[in-house]
Amino acid sequence: MDLNEIYTQVIAEHCSSTKNRREIENPDAYIEGINSSCGDELRIGVKLENGKIKDAAYTGVGCAISQASASIMTELVIGKTIDEAKHLAELFIGMIKREITDESKLEELDEAIALQNISNMPARVKCATLAWHTFEEAVDTALSKEQ
Amino acid sequence: MDLNEIYTQVIAEHCSSTKNRREIENPDAYIEGINSSCGDELRIGVKLENGKIKDAAYTGVGCAISQASASIMTELVIGKTIDEAKHLAELFIGMIKREITDESKLEELDEAIALQNISNMPARVKCATLAWHTFEEAVDTALSKEQ
Amino acid sequence: MQLKELSTIEKINKIREDFPIFSQQINGKPLAYLDNAATTQKPIQVLDQINRYYKKFNANPHRGAYTLSIKATNFYNMARKNIKRFINAKHTEEIIFTRGATEALNLIAYSYGMNFINEGDEIVLSIAEHHSNLVPWQQIALAKKAKLIYLYTDENGQISKDEINKKITNKTKLVAIAQVSNVLGTVFPVEHIIKKAHKHNAVVVLDMAQSIPHIKADVQELDVDFAVFSGHKMLAPMGIGVLYGKKDLLIKMPPFLFGGDMIDIVKEQSTTFAPLPQKFEAGTQNVGGAIGLSAAIDYLENIGYDNIYKIEKELTSYALNKLSQNPNISIFGSKNGDDRTGVISFTVKDVHPHDVSTILDADGIAIRSGHHCAHPLMTHCKTNATCRASLYFYNTFEEIDRLAESLLTVRKWLGFDKR
Amino acid sequence: MQLKELSTIEKINKIREDFPIFSQQINGKPLAYLDNAATTQKPIQVLDQINRYYKKFNANPHRGAYTLSIKATNFYNMARKNIKRFINAKHTEEIIFTRGATEALNLIAYSYGMNFINEGDEIVLSIAEHHSNLVPWQQIALAKKAKLIYLYTDENGQISKDEINKKITNKTKLVAIAQVSNVLGTVFPVEHIIKKAHKHNAVVVLDMAQSIPHIKADVQELDVDFAVFSGHKMLAPMGIGVLYGKKDLLIKMPPFLFGGDMIDIVKEQSTTFAPLPQKFEAGTQNVGGAIGLSAAIDYLENIGYDNIYKIEKELTSYALNKLSQNPNISIFGSKNGDDRTGVISFTVKDVHPHDVSTILDADGIAIRSGHHCAHPLMTHCKTNATCRASLYFYNTFEEIDRLAESLLTVRKWLGFDKR
Ligand SMILES: Cc1ncc(COP(=O)(O)O)c(C=O)c1O
Ligand SMILES: Cc1ncc(COP(=O)(O)O)c(C=O)c1O
Predict the structure, then answer these.
(1) pLDDT tens figures, A24-80
(2) D64/B123 CB distance under 8 A
(3) Which of C357, D154, D312, D313 has its CA 20 to 30 A from that of B133?
(4) Catalytic one among C6, C238, C373, C414?
(5) C-alpha pair distances (Å), C343 with each of A74, C36, C111, C368, C397
(6) Residue D355 and residue A13: Cβ atoms within 8 Å?
(7) The model's pTM
(8) Domains of chain A by start residue, with CATH
(9) What value of ipTM does the predicted structure carry?
């Protein structure tokens, strides 16, 4: 294992990024995701508008991987359609679980590809996917409220 | 282990002996002793008179060791004073548990010495001592009734 | 090893090379180990895997973000997956590691029994159950005012369909039954019992302790609700066993043991619990044991259940035949080799089973005597104890010959048949 | 081995030869195993004893009248006697084998807690308890409408006498406390707690999981009512542990697990139970595990608790001193070496503990990060997780140097202190 493959420049920057580490005003859903084994606690908020992710943000404590993952994810999904965003979440989780390995398919994930090497570290997989799972749940909750 | 030391002539004879394998009329106590691990079930009856063991007998099922031990024991204690009989029981149990090894002390046990080698067979110790423990209990029960 | 091409005797001899214990002498004679229903011996392949783990990969699983702990966790998870595949469970999380069959049965009793059995419900057991699949249900019946109903065996040690159809009714909430009796060796008609139980919406607890070492298990094909077994009876070390449960049942059951690793969040006054399978695995798990069990499964599958079946069938027929030739021996249960495994209970006329095993031991032959943790069956069979010789695929025809010969001497030691 | 005459460094080097795992490389670096509070490594002497058992003496104990079973039974009983002597219990039957500390604590909760704790009673715990000594009591409190009262730790990770005297009262029925915290390493004043509890007729459950590997135990001198520990944290294999209980308490408690070997007579509708210790040991016991635990005790005593204490004291002081020199590190609990073992919890400024352990792992250094199965203590300490390095007498000063050096690099990986 080479640490350079895990703690990349991208991760270090996103981990301390404060851009989307904030509360959303009038969110459509706020969901708390917990990774009890390492004590990560992430609250993800989403705001939908016209079938798109109008805004997404997070608060909470956690390791660099889970924080960077949340930061990258929020930047990636804001402005995307709900379907696109959900597709990206599936893609990301598939990448970390090594179910999707085709590099060309993963291109859509953009900066999130920086987390691909986490798939070699079973103990950290949950850290990387926490934000994405929680995001999926938040979107579903927001959608169910709409109806 | 030499089987000749365990299944001696004495044991074979006592094991099928019917002399004291019987019910006692008007017993002072009947006690059931159980060795659940091998399924031995022994009922020992005693009759006391003038501080002596007037009669002792047994019924039940069990292995050769437990049956022979019961037969030898009843023959030995009948006619003895209660104190002598209790002393013999202690001596016997001490012999089987290897707590008493001094041959001269064991002489009093007479034929019961034939069971000494059982002390080398941990799995059979309980078979050998069942009759004696049950006898002790029967005597104590009979005495407590007297009072 | 290309076992297929060898004769049965050659197969057995080849297999025996894997078991260090068989180079032993007992009382100056080679060890004839015929107590396999109590516990089996361990092949070097299993011991080697356990040693390799402790010498190279030992760490607490699930609890560290360092290489060694990740490896230990992986080994543990791989063992669980191997068992899932082995018994053909649908989901990996349906496999719960326990200390053995007894703990697994108690887990079901405490967690399912105490919460889903109610006053007036009936629990159906066979009279042949091992105490571990009987006493827990007695306790549940006592605590919940439920009724225990027994399926009785007939003179062949079998449970008739009539008996099953009569006793399993709409009142039945749970049926607990061994697939193979540890005393009679009978293979019970569990497929029929499970179908009948499900018709009445009862759940079935299958005790595979005596079947899985000999008969390939398929929990989905059986459609059984719970199944349990012990590693030590199938070449694995002591201290490891398995509970299988259908996911929907396990999900609705509360945890049994509480502690580390089975929790989600613990606050001062309340706790939420982890999902399956962790919910039922409190405390540091026995990784070495799980690896040993997984290695034992690999070993069994390498030999092949078809080979195991063939070898055991030949040995069992041979043994039943040999023993039947002794007029002083009475065999319990099925006298031919059908619907039974190589667990053979018998008595010798006029001689208590305990004496029989002591006398055989002097010839290096290890058989068990007693009630075999099945008092109620003993009472039903009107006996206090039996002798039990139980075979595994590493036993030899010669060992059976020695058993038969030694049994011919038994009565003489006790003064019968004149010495 | 004449350890006495050697220097500490020579002692450690000699001891390390017994542990095959230390010849390992992790990520190209020699393994620095600093997660001993989670589980310890195994010396070859322990592995050899277990192998010897399986290769020469394996049989089901208590269940046969043949040589092998008698030997297995003897080994099992000798292990029990060795443990009795080791912790200075009064009676051999006060030693109950369990799977580990967690099962032992659950046994006490189910059997004692469910039957002798009543509505309104108070159960006193320390806030530092491991989930295994906390969640079971939460469940008892819930089931019996009893109250959980916590002893809080102060800024040194210690529980003050004031706190103890205030919280243990006539309402207290049971006190459950670890002798040593698995997070802070604090040695709690259990002598005082036991005396105070007894004054109020409360029983005390002592969790020795983190103390017995380091501190000689004497249950009679402590006068403790129950004590538990796990073999795997003291050089023995996984899957074996011990419950000690005072005889009069164990006698009045009902059995916990039901099944083979713990019964006296089983009838169709009722059962009587065996005397101690069998009453609490249902099913086939882990003889191999018991032998491993007994061998581990022999090994520890051969090294000598005086040597262990001296080595660990030096290592702990050295580590505390080294870590304190890093201004970005905050140590939890006692900062000097008094009243504590070598369990050291700390955090690195701005870096999550999980990242710390991943980064250290790349240097071959195994430490644990997380809540250490002590959520309520984390909450009390106002943190989510800590890093934990935990030492044993086979660790080296060099390993501590490597830990300290590697910790200096941690912040850089996350973009702090400029790379
Ligand atoms: C203080 C303490 N108590 C109890 C336990 C539980 O021990 P085990 O997981 O071996 O059952 C542990 C370790 O995990 C511990 O550190
Ligand atoms: C049929 C059956 N069920 C359950 C058990 C209990 O298994 P264990 O003692 O390994 O828990 C046994 C063996 O002892 C058995 O033969």
Answers:
(1) 989 999 999 988 777 788 999 999 999 999 999 999 989 999 999 999 999 999 999
(2) yes
(3) C357
(4) C373
(5) 65, 8, 32, 11, 15
(6) no
(7) 0.96
(8) 3-146 (3.90.1010.10)
(9) 0.95
